[in-house]
Amino acid sequence: MRDGPGKNLLTASVLAIVLAILGGCVTTTRSALVTSADSSDCVVLLHGLNRSWHAMSKMATELQAAGYTTVNVDYPSQTGPIESLAPMAVNEGLETCHEADAVQIHFVTHSMGGILLRYAHNESPIPDLGRVVMLAPPNQGSEIVDVTKDWPGAELLSGEAGLQIGTDENSIPAQLGPVDFELGIIAGTGTISPFLSMMLPNPDDGKVSVASTKVEGMNDFLMVKNSHHFIVTDDKVIENTIQFLRTGKFLESNVPVTSVPSSQ
C-alpha cells in the first residue's frame, strides 16, 4: 500500500470516530457472576480487543440456561500490555468462580481473550482448568497488526496489547507453545470489513485468518460463516460451544484437527 496525506487523513478520521465511541469503555476490571444450583462447573467469559462484557452477554445467558455458573469479565483491553492484562482478566474470572465454590472452571474466549488465557496459563498453570472454547483467536497472530502497526494512531486504537499480536517472532502468540488443555476452536469465514480482509490470507473473518486461529494441541475445530464481530452471538456457535463444554467435541467438526501449523 502507498502512504500519503490522503490515506493518513482518512486513517486519523476513522480513529477519531472509533476512539469517541470507545470513550466510555471500562478502565478497571469487573465481572458479572450468575450462579447455578445445577452445576459445580463455572464458565469464565473473556471478550476481545476494544469490546466489553456486553459482547459476551448472549453467550453468558445461554450458558446459564444450560446449567452453568458464569462469570462475564470486563477488562480494559487498551490499558497496558498482555503481560499485565492477562493476569488481571483471568484472575478476576478464577477468583469469582472460586467464590462461587466452583469445582471446575471452563473458559469461553473471543479474539484476544484467548491469547490472554494462554499467556496467563503459561505463566501460572491453572490447576482446575476445564475445557476451553476460543472464538476467532489470533493464535498465530494477525497480519493486520503487521500492516497497520506503524499507521498514525495505531497504538491509540489498539493499545499496547493489540500491537503485541502480530505474526513476527517477537509477538506474544509466537512465544506461546502448544496448548495443554482441552480446546475447541471456532473460526469465522465471513467478513463485514472487505478492506481489512484484503490484508489477510483467505479464508478469514475480517480480522483473523482461519489458518491463524489454529494451534498445536487443540482437540476440535469448526468453521462457520460469520464475521469476527458477530461470531460471538451466532446461535450455531453458541450451540456448539455448549456441546464442547459438555463433551469435548463440537456437534459438527468440519476441518481435520491435524491441519495445524507448528507452534513457534
Element layout with pairings:
Blueprint: H1 5-21, E1 30-34, E2 41-46, H2 57-65, E3 69-74, H3 82-99, E4 104-110, H4 112-123, E5 129-135, H5 143-148, H6 154-163, H7 172-175, E6 183-188, H8 194-197, H9 210-213, E7 220-224, H10 235-247
Parallel strand pairs: 2-3, 2-4, 4-5, 5-6, 6-7
Antiparallel strand pairs: 1-3
Descriptive overview:
There is one protein chain. With 264 residues, the chain is an alpha/beta fold. It has a single domain (28-247), classed as Alpha/Beta hydrolase fold, catalytic domain (Rossmann fold), CATH 3.40.50.1820. The chain contains ten helices and seven strands. The protein has helices at 5-21, 57-65, 82-99, 112-123, 143-148, 154-163, 172-175, 194-197, 210-213, 235-247, and strands at 30-34, 41-46, 69-74, 104-110, 129-135, 183-188, 220-224. It has a seven-stranded mixed β-sheet with strand order 1-3-2-4-5-6-7, sandwiched between helices. Helix 3 packs across helix 4 (112-123). The radius of gyration is 18 Å and the shape is globular. The model is unreliable at 1-24 (pLDDT under 50).
Task: Please name the defining characteristics of this protein.
10 helices; alpha/beta; disordered N terminus; single chain; seven-stranded mixed sheet
Shape: globular
Q: What is the average of the pLDDT values?
A: 87
Q: How many domains would you count in the coordinates?
A: 1
Distance between the termini: 28 Å
- Share in β-strands: 15-25%
Q: List unreliable stretches of 5+ residues.
A: 1-24
Helix run count = 10
Oligomer type = single chain
Strand order of the largest sheet: 1-3-2-4-5-6-7
The CATH class is identified as: Alpha Beta
β-strand number: 7
What is the correct CATH architecture? 3-Layer(aba) Sandwich
* CATH superfamily heading: Alpha/Beta hydrolase fold, catalytic domain
**Overall helicity:** 25-40%
Gyration radius, in Å = 18 Å
SS class: alpha/beta
CATH topology: Rossmann fold
Main beta sheet strand tally, sense and closure: 7 strands, mixed
